[in-house]
TrEMBL record:
SUPFAM superfamilies for this protein: Nucleotide-diphospho-sugar transferases (SSF53448)
GO MF assignments: nucleotidyltransferase activity
Membership in a protein family: Belongs to the transferase hexapeptide repeat family.
Annotated ranges, domain Mannose-1-phosphate guanyltransferase C-terminal: 287-395
Name of the featured protein: Nucleotidyl transferase domain-containing protein
Amino acid sequence: MMGMMNTDDHRAVAVIMVGGPTKGTRFRPLSLNIPKPLFPLAGQPMVHHPIFACKRIPNLAQIYLVGFYEQREFALYVSSISNELKVPVKYLKEDKPHGSAGGLYKFRDLIMEDNPSHIFLLNCDVCCSFPLPEMLEAHKRYGGMGTILVIKVSPESADQFGELVADPNTNELLHYTEKPETFVSDRINCGVYVFTPEIFTAIQGVSAQRKDRGRLSLPADFVRLDQDILSPFAGKKQLYTYETMDFWEQIKTPGMSLKCSGLYLSLFRHTSPHLLNQGDGTKSATIIGDVYIHPSAKVHPTAQIGPNVSISANARIGAGARLINCIILDDVEIKENAVVIHSIVGWKCSIGRWSRVQAEGDHKAKLGVTILGESVNVEDEVVVINCIVLPNKTL
C-alpha cells in the first residue's frame, strides 16, 4: 500500500497565544470578571473562534493554549472544548514572559511530542476567518520554514502593525518591519502562522547568538517572533506569505470586540448557520440580520432584535425592547420598551423600563461604544449615552 503514504503523511499541532491578565488592561471593566480570551464574541468565547478553525486542519493531533493566566481560569473551558471537538486542548502556563517565539520554544518538547510536521501559531486577539487548511496547502507548495497570513490595509493604518514586503510572484517574504516610522507597505502581518519544526532551530539560534554577544538588554530566552525571527529571516527563501481576502481585525478594546462579534456572526452564515436565530415576531421576537440568542435566554415575542446582537445565557428581554449592535451577557434583565444600541451590557445588569443605553457606534473611539460592567442597575426612564460604567453602580 505504498500509494497510501504520500497522500497525507503530515501531522499538525496548533498553538494559540492567549496572553495574560497584565495584557488585557484596555479591555477593562469587562476583563475584571473573566480572562479576555473567554469573553464571548457572537456567543462563543473569543478563543473558541481560532480553536474551532483549527478543527479544519487535516491530521490535527493537539491544540495548546499558551499564556500567563492561572490554570484554574481555563480548566473548565479546556475540558469542555476538548470533549466537544474530540481534539485534546491543553492550557500551558508560562512562568514569565518569553516573547511570542520564546513561549513557543519553552514548550517545544510538548509541542513536538506528537512528532508534527507542521506547527500552527495563532494569536487569540485577532478576528478573521482563519483560513488554516488553505495556508497549509500554500505552505507545502512554498517549501519554506514558515508562512505568514497577511492582509492588505489602508496605507494610513498600516503603521500600527507589522508591515511587510513580499515578492508578488513567489510570495517570498522579502522585508519585515514592526510598526515602522515611515510607510513601508500596505500589507500587514495578521498574527497567524504555520511553521515546520525548523522554527525551533531558528529560535535557538537567536538565543545562542545573544549568549555569545553577552547582550544583557534582553534575556537569552526572550525571543520575539517579529523582530528576532521574521525580520532577520526575510529574503532568505525561508518565509512566505499567504494573503487573506476576508476580514481581519485586532481585538484590543471592548469597542472592537463588539465589531468582531458582528464579523463572527456574519461568518456563521457560512460556517454555522444553526447558531443564528430567525424570527418574524409571531411566536418569537422579530429578528433582523445576524443574531445569536442562547437557548436559555427568554425573549418576549414583541421585542425587536438585530442586526449584530448576541444574547448570552439566562438573559431576559422584555416586551417592546429594541436591541441593535450589542452584546448582552449572562443574567441581564432588559425591561419593557428599553432600547440598547452600540453597547455591551455586563453580567447581571438590569435596564429599566423605557430606558435608553446607547453610543455613537464608532468601534475605534474610546467612548464609541457604551459599556456597563457587572451588576450595573439602570433605573426606569434613564438615558445613558457614550459611557463606561464600572461594576455595581446604579444610574
